[in-house]
Amino acid sequence: MPDLADKVDRIVREVRLLAQQEGKLSGFCIGNTRKINATGLYFSPVRKTSRLIAGSAIVYDVDQAVAVARAVDGEVDYVLVDTEKKISPELYGEENVGNVERAVRETVTRSRVLTYKGNDLTVDSVEMLIVQILSTFPRGLSGKKAAIIGAGNVGSKLALKLVERGMDVAILRRDRAKLEAIVAALNIIKPSETIACVSAAADGLSAATGAHLLVGLTQGTPVISAAMVDALAGGAVLLDGGKGCCESEAIARAQQKDIPIYRADIRPGFEGHVGMVLETERIVLHALGRAEFGGVPVVSGGLLARADEVVVDSVQEPRAVFGLANGLGDFVRVLDGEQTRRLAAVREYIDNLQPS
């Protein structure tokens, strides 16, 4: 794939230059999708977070993922691969089952491989956008109605997040049996104290009727009609989460009625997920562990502490003491004399490490 290698090389050179200029890490994301693009494999814009500059390719089969992985291996600090299995063997054969993560791990030997979940990144971005654009409601989202057209993986996860925030959520998908199963599952999973619920809509119009939020989450299939726009509650908003979910007449009607139309933007979710992935790596590699400070056993980084171990922020670069472990995942609340001495000894040890 010479053309692909040339394109990747240009993106990688841009990523490395920006990372050097801004003092950040360099990376390349390999995502996968079941939404077929007529042009085949495509590249997303270079993305920036507070810690990382990354290029991105969206692939449709394992061979494409391997080709991209080979081109970026050793050229960037991190290769971030979408770990969700979204490529169908029906399209590419039983031998190509869409395990992009495994293929990338087997290919990359010089860069560090980390994983993310593309759908979760999208869900978090859409949820935060909804929270912001509907923040003018005095009670927030509580007591309002949302309609989600397209209750697949992303739509179902978004429905759970919104119902947990107090919205009644009507969802719709073509397979009625799966729709009913999803609705039942989400109403079981939500906190028992949550009054709001998820319901199965009979059709798009009934879902949209009286809704304050109408979300399209299909694979680019236009499912939001002008009639659905007319049925919305006053002050409602539209959100195209699948890029192409609104019929042209629906867009025109929304514009006539001055109803805002938003589209999914994954930048917030990308920032959050990359930050979490990199911080988890830092904790596991550089903070997690056991040691002795001043003869006292200490632990850090998320390990289950043993009884009377002192819990600190990092055994490698300690700055803070959190408490004395009770051996059951919590802290000792009332200390005896020996336990008090242990804490004091560790604090003194850490204080002596700090530059004067």
What does this structure look like?
The protein is of the alpha/beta class and 356 residues long. The chain has three domains: 2-116, no CATH class; 120-267, Rossmann fold, CATH 3.40.50; 288-353, no CATH class. The protein contains twelve helices and 15 strands. A six-stranded parallel beta sheet has the order 8-7-6-9-10-11. α9 links the parallel β9 and β10 (237-240). The mean pLDDT is 92.
What is the number of E strands?
A: 15
Give me the side-by-side strand order of the main sheet: 8-7-6-9-10-11
H/E series:
HEEEHEHHEHEHEHEHEHEHEHEEEEH
Oligomer: single chain
* Helix count from the secondary structure assignment: 12
Quickly name the level 1 CATH class of the largest domain. Answer: Alpha Beta
Distance between the termini: 58 Å
**What is the CATH-assigned architecture of the largest domain?**
3-Layer(aba) Sandwich
| Share in β-strands | 15-25%
In round numbers, the mean pLDDT is: 92
The number of domains: 3
- Unreliable runs: none
- How does the major sheet shape up? 6 strands, parallel
By helix and strand content, what is the structural category?
A: alpha/beta
